[in-house]
Amino acid sequence: MTHLLRVTLLGFALACAGLLAGCDTMAKIQLTKTQYAVIEPDEKMLADCPQADPPEEGAYVAATPKQREAMLVALSLEQMDIIAKCNNQWGTLREWIAKNRKTYSEKK
């Protein structure tokens, strides 16, 4: 073989050896798996707020004006109590959401 051919083959062999050696030092590919979770609040937190039942029609019509007023005041007080409980329920839901936001934002 001629000197030029030997040098060319030697250079080619060294290049191939360098490429093969480089395969082991290449950066590793890292796969990332993303998992999504749906976090749902307790069913009772999402329940509709009830309404107070109005006085019975027959009893209301038969009542005196003073009794009617008492019936309406009782209805109003009952509905206000229901609204207060419902507001408390929504407050609990807001606290639950804030707690979960904090929990999941810390895991990032």
Structural write-up:
By secondary structure, the protein is an all-alpha fold. The chain has a domain at 43-108. The chain is 69% helix and 0% strand. It has four helices and no strands. The chain has helices at 3-24, 43-46, 57-62, 65-106. The longest helix has 42 residues, at 65-106. It is rod-shaped and about 125 Å long. The two termini are 64 Å apart.
Provide the fold topology:
Layout: H1 3-24, H2 43-46, H3 57-62, H4 65-106
Distance between the termini: 64 Å
* Number of E-type strands: 0
Overall pLDDT score? 80
User: What is the element string, with H for helices and E for strands?
Assistant: HHHH
Assembly form of the protein: single chain
Treating each run of at least 4 consecutive H or I residues as one helix, how many helices?
A: 4
Primary descriptors:
single chain; 108 residues; mainly alpha; 4 helices; rod-shaped
Summarize it:
It contains four helices and no strands. With 108 residues, the chain is mostly helical.
